[in-house]
Amino acid sequence: MKYLQINDAEIINERLIEELIEKTKSFDRIRFNEIIEKAKKAKGLELEEVAFLINIEDPEALEELFEVAREVKLSIYGKRVVFFVPLYTSNECTNNCLYCGYRHDNKILHRKTLTTEDIIKEAKAIESQGHKRILLVCGEDPNKTSIGHITSAVEAIYKNCDIRRINVNAAPMSIDEFKMLKESGIGTYQIFQETYHRETYKKMHPQGQKANYNKRITAIYNAYQGGIDDVGIGPLLGLYDYRFDVLATLMHIRHFDNFTGGVGPHTISVPRLKYAEGWALDGIPYPISDLDFMKIVAVFRLAVPYTGIILSTREAPDLRDKLLDLGVSQISAGSSTSPGGYKEKEEHANQFELADHRNLIQMMNVICEKGYIPSFCTACYRRERTGHKFMEFAKEGEIHEFCQPNAILTFKEVLLDYGTDELKKKGEEIIKKALDEIDNIKLKEETIKRIKELEQGKRDLYF
Ligand code: SAM
Ligand code: SF4
Questions:
Q1: In this predicted structure, what is the pLDDT of residue 399?
Q2: Distance from the CA of 42 to the CA of which of 109, 254, 267, 373 falls in 20 to 30 A?
C-alpha cells in the first residue's frame, strides 16, 4: 500500500491566519448577529467567522457567545460528561521542551520508567477510584518509551484490570508503529502541536525529535494511515497568541478532515500552560485570562460542534465548573502527572502543577449538582463506531441517542460499586431525569431493563 506524505506548508498558512485576525479586529454588531445565527445551526463556522469571534472583547457579545455555546453543546452532546484519568508511565525524555518538567536538562526531577508490573498497580489504583477510561502518557525516549513499552502497557492493563478504554498521548510514530498501537486495542491517539507558530515552536523545542515541526503536525495523518481513525489534537495555550493558535488548530482540523474524507479529529484538548518545577521559562510567554480561556472553549464548540472538547485538572475548580457549560464534554478527575503517582504517591516526578485536586467522587457530586450526568461510557470504539461511522452520527447530532442511555448505564454501575450514600441519592435523581429525556420509547424501556440487570449484578452493559 502506498502511503501519502504530507507537508506542514500545505496545512498551516501563517500569513492567512495573520490577515484574518487583522481583518476581523473591529467589532461589528450586524456581522456578529449573522455569525451567531449561523453558529446556532451547529454545522460549524468558516475560518473568517472564527477569527471574528476570537477577537471579541465586548462583554455583552461574549455573554451571547457563551449562551449559544451552551445551547450547541446540549444539542450535540446532551447532558453527559465523560470521565477519564491520565496514567504516566515514564518521565524520561530526550527532548528539551522549555516549558515541561520532564525536559531532558531538568536535573532536579526524579526520573522513572514504570515496569509493566508497576503500570498494572497504577491502573488498579485508578480502577479502585471507579474510573473506566485511561489516557496513557509518557516522555519521548527511544530507549525507554518505544512502541514496545506503550503496547505492553496497554495490553497488560486490559488483561489485568477493568479498564475499558485506553487512549494514548505520546510522541509521533511511524505508520508501522501506529499499526502496532492500533493492534494493542487503543481508543484515541492524542498529540498536541503545542504551538502552530513556527518561530515560537522552534524556540520552545530546541533539541531532540520534537524540534521537527513537520513530524509533529503530520503525526495524526500517519496514525490515520496506520488504522487509528480516532485522533485528538490541541494547542498548548500560553506559548503564543491564542488567537493565532485557535485559528491554526482549525486549519489543521480542516486539512485533516479533507485528507480523511470527512473524519475530523475526535477530540480537541485545551491544555493551558502551567508552571512546572525545573522548566526553562521565565514565566508564561502569553498569559491567558480566565475570560479569554472561556472564549476559546466557546469558539471551539461553535467552530466544530461535533468534536469532543477535553479539559484536564490544569484548571482550577471554579473555572472547570463554568467550562462544563460552555462546551467541554470530557474531563479528568483525581489526576496525577507523575509516574507512580497513584499507588506510591510519588511527589517529585511531576510534569507540571495541577489546580483541581478534587477526587472522582467529589467531581461526580459536582456534575450531578449542575444537572449533568457523569458518564463512564466506552461503547463507541467497542461497537466500532469510530472514524467515518462516528462522524456520520456526530455530524448529524445523532450521537446523543447513544450517549444518554450509555451514560445512564455506566453511571449506575459506578454508583453501585463506588458511590457514597450522598452521591447515590443525587445520582438516582439525575438518572431518573435523564431517563425521562429519552424520547425513543423502546430505547428507554431497554435502558430501564438493563438498569435492573445492573442492580442484579450484571456489569458492563451498553448500546
Ligand atoms: N512527550 C509527549 C509529547 O510531548 O507529545 C507526550 C506527552 S507530554 C507528557 C503531554 C503534553 O503535556 C504535552 O504535549 C504538552 O502540551 C503538555 N505540557 C507539557 N508541559 C506543560 C506545562 N508546563 N503545563 C501544561 N501542559 C504541559
Ligand atoms: Fe518530553 Fe513531552 Fe515534556 Fe517535551 S512535553 S519534554 S517531549 S515529555
A1: 62
A2: 373
Ligand 2: which atom is nearest the Cα of residue 210?
7
Ligand 1 centroid–CA 394 distance in Å is 28
Per-residue pLDDT reduced to its tens digit, 244-272: 999 999 999 999 999 999 999 999 999 99
- Cα angle vertex 75, ends 71, 79, to 5°? 90
Q: Whose CA is nearest to atom 16 of ligand 1?
A: 236
* pLDDT over threshold 90, residue 324: yes
Distance 98 CA to ligand 1 centre (A): 11
User: What's residue 348's pLDDT?
Assistant: 61
User: For residue 94, which atom of ligand 2 is closest to its CA?
Assistant: 1
At 134-184, the pLDDT tens digits run 999 999 999 999 999 999 999 999 999 999 999 999 999 999 999 999 999
Q: Which of 111-115, 156-160, 394-398 has the lowest average pLDDT?
A: 394-398
Q: Is the CB of 144 under 6 A from ligand 2?
A: no
Per residue, the 3-state secondary structure of the chain, as one string, reads: CCCCCCCHHHHCCHHHHHHHHHHCCCCCHHHHHHHHHHHHCCCCCCHHHHHHHHCCCCHHHHHHHHHHHHHHHHHHHCCEEEEEEEEEEECCCCCCCCCCCCCCCCCCCCCCECCHHHHHHHHHHHHCCCCCEEEEEECCCCCCCCHHHHHHHHHHHHHHCCCCEEEEECCCCCHHHHHHHHHCCCCCEECCCECCCHHHHHHHCCCCHHHCHHHHHCHHHHHHHCCCCCEEECECECCCCHHHHHHHHHHHHHHHHHHCCCCCCCEEECCECCCCCCCCCCCCCCCCCHHHHHHHHHHHHHHCCCCEEEECCCCCHHHHHHHHHHCCCEEECCCCCCCCCCCCCCCCCCCCCCCCCCCHHHHHHHHHHCCCEEECCCHHHHCCCCHHHHHHHHHCCCHHHHHHHHHHHHHHHHHHHHCCHHHHHHHHHHHHHHHHCCCCHHHHHHHHHHHHHHHCCCCCCCC
Q: Is the CB of 191 under 6 A from ligand 2?
A: no
Mean pLDDT of the chain: 94
Cα(351) to centroid of ligand 2, in Å? Answer: 9
Q: Do 80 and 377 meet the contact criterion of CB atoms below 8 Å apart?
A: yes
Its pTM stands at 0.96
Three cell numbers at 145? 518509551
pLDDT at 351 over 80: no
CA Rg value for the chain: 21
